[in-house]
Amino acid sequence: MNYQTSFMYNESMDNRRIGYLEVIAGPMYCGKTEELIRQVKRAAIGKKNIRVFKHQIDTRYGFDKKLFSHAGLSFESEMVGNACQILDMVDNKTQIVAIDEAQWFGEKLIDVIDILLNRGKHVIVAGLAMTFNRQPFTPVPTLMAMADKVTKLSAICSICGEEAVYHKRISKGKTVDPHKADPSLVGKIKNYQARCRRCYKKP
Ligand code: ADP
Ligand code: MG
Ligand code: ZN
């Protein structure tokens, strides 16, 4: 293959690049962030051009920009205040876009991801499928429906040790909207527990 044909080949490959969406979903503590970090670390080994985002509401580990898992794994990320900012920060060179805590971005994230997919990006999104009162947590269920691949994880029930598909808010005090992020509560371990179907009903 001479230089000219090799160039044309690469260019047509690029035009043919179609987007790919993977959604990693489940309750709190099920390992969503761990799985997202695993995937971006593998992509980094493959020298892919990656952008990793988290919502600025998630300051549970201080104002550190990194993604952190409950078991202490971490990966460099960028903080954004809304879904549209992701579009501004992704350019032609970006191959992989990873987004953690998708639920805090709201419905707008669906349009943003659609645009990224149309631009041929490989998008990996992690987020809560349900709120702490077991309602679908926009936009994650819609993203799961759009996805090429869904990785649905479960946690371990903190009461009986079985598989937990829910998380329950156990802290007393002020009532909070399960769909809204309360910066003082996001992900705080003492406020939420993973629960199986049987133990969800227990206090
Ligand atoms: P997520 O992002 O889904 O909230 P993380 O990836 O941050 O979860 O953390 C997953 C890790 O949390 C597990 O590997 C385990 O070490 C720890 N962990 C703590 N509590 C639980 C639980 N109830 N079930 C499963 N893992 C738990
Ligand atoms: Mg997480
Ligand atoms: Zn249980």
Describe the global form: globular
Query: What does the largest sheet look like?
Result: 6 strands, parallel
Q: Strand tally, please? A: 13
The CATH architecture is 3-Layer(aba) Sandwich
**Share of helix, binned:** 25-40%
- What class do helices, strands and sheet pairing give? alpha/beta
Distance between the termini: 69 Å
Low-confidence segments, given as residue ranges, are: 1-15
Based on CA atoms alone, the radius of gyration comes out at 18 Å
β-strand amount: 25-35%
**Assigned CATH superfamily:** P-loop containing nucleotide triphosphate hydrolases
Quick overview of this protein structure:
By secondary structure, this protein is α/β, with parallel strands linked by helices. The protein is built from 5 helices and 13 strands. Mean pLDDT is 88; it is low at 1-15.
Secondary structure layout plus pairing:
Blueprint: H1 3-16, E1 20-26, H2 32-45, E2 50-55, E3 60-63, E4 67-68, E5 74-75, E6 78-80, H3 83-89, E7 96-99, H4 108-118, E8 122-128, H5 140-146, E9 149-152, E10 155-156, E11 163-164, E12 166-169, E13 192-195
Parallel strand pairs: 1-8, 1-9, 2-6, 2-7, 7-8
Antiparallel strand pairs: 4-5, 10-11, 12-13
Helix pairs in contact: 3-4
Bound molecules: adenosine-5'-diphosphate, magnesium ion and zinc ion.
Would you mind describing this structure in some detail?
- It is built from 5 helices and 13 strands.
- It is an alpha/beta fold and 203 residues long.
- The longest helix is centred in the first third of the chain and has 14 residues, at 3-16.
- The chain starts with a helix and ends in an 8-residue tail after the last strand.
- The relative contact order is 0.19.
- Magnesium ion (MG) is lined by residues 32-33, 100.
- Magnesium ion binds at residues 32-33, 100.
